[in-house]
Predict the structure.
Amino acid sequence: MGFYNARMACRAHRQCDGRKSRPAAAPKGHKCQQRAAPQIHPLGPNPGPHEVRPVKKPSARARALGPSDPARAALGWLHTARFLTTAAQLHQLADVDVPEIAFVGRSNAGKSTAINTLTQQTQLAFASKKPGRTQHINLFALGRQGAMDAVLADLPGYGYAAVPQADKARWQQVMVNYLVSRPGLQGVVMLCDARHGIKDLDEALLEVIRPRVEAGLPFLVLLTKADKLGRSGQARALSIARLQTGGGDVQLFSALKRQGVAEAALWLRQCVDAATPPAATAADKDAHPADLRDAE
């Protein structure tokens, strides 16, 4: 009778008779709970005090998705960004003694969104559903503990047809003057919609800064909104942009999917480090338009 009752109880919770559907757990103390093999440590049940336990390695997916230590540090550095000043004309901007990196692009390329994503802030750069709202040069300071070791410059967008021609010409001239003559400029990031690639106005801008790029000015093209393309479309856009820039630095970028965010942050950090004298870098660690108008 005892065996029969145990067998019927086993069938009641349907764990030993091979059925797939069963309750979450068997009754406490039932013999089915005793069938699981004991978990034995690879080094034995009781490793000695001097034996090193094996460390579980992260999965391949985690290694692929997680940013590296330098990229994580660069993202933390970018998170220190705060508003510095704004100016409608170049002469209104005071010279700073730290490297500046300029962000340029068409009015609908997602420039403000990219800056906010890289700095992990929501309202640092003004992002509007209506393109053409950025009419000034906006500077953002970077640096920990209130110090300033770099500046990001958000330049007015170009190419928006709804803007009056006079305003468009003035913004473009201000932008060109900045890119050509700003002494502290140490890098340029141009943002282009990955679906459309580098257009005529973008190529005109490349011609404006070509002398400085040939002289060693770092230059990066971010193909924004890459999430709107499939893998083959992304590969094609990347290949075409690299041909148009003569093999320059080109990266895919998506604020929505955070694609390319860590890589872009690392590029910005390396750009600033390359422009900073070694002594200043060590101390930092211790402290912890005409052409554009013609193209139109």
Q: What stands out?
A: The CA atoms of residues 60 and 66 lie 10 Å apart. Strands lie at 82-87, 100-105, 137-142, 150-154, 185-193, 219-224, 249-252. Residues 165-181 form the longest helix (17 residues).
